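Reading is simple: the token line describes the chain's fold. The lines below illustrate.

. . .
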Amino acid sequence: MAHPFLTYPHPSAPAVSCTAAVETGTGSLMIRTAPSPAAPCAAHAPDGARLAVYGRCGAWYAVRFDGTEGYVTGEDIVLLYAGSPA
């Protein structure tokens, strides 16, 4: 599903560009329905969880976790690229 807030490099469905590890220090991260702190929470991801990252909108990343798509801020995740230590 294409999100209205993101610009994708190709007109087809968004592809996963990398993964990210959740590192909040508080136990879990709220995955929001839109790139805004006021947006409703779609899901929670625990510290250490891996998210599929497929886009970016300013300081927000479009992610998929456990079947849920949404947005998280970059301050609570660590991007992991191919060859990065897990």
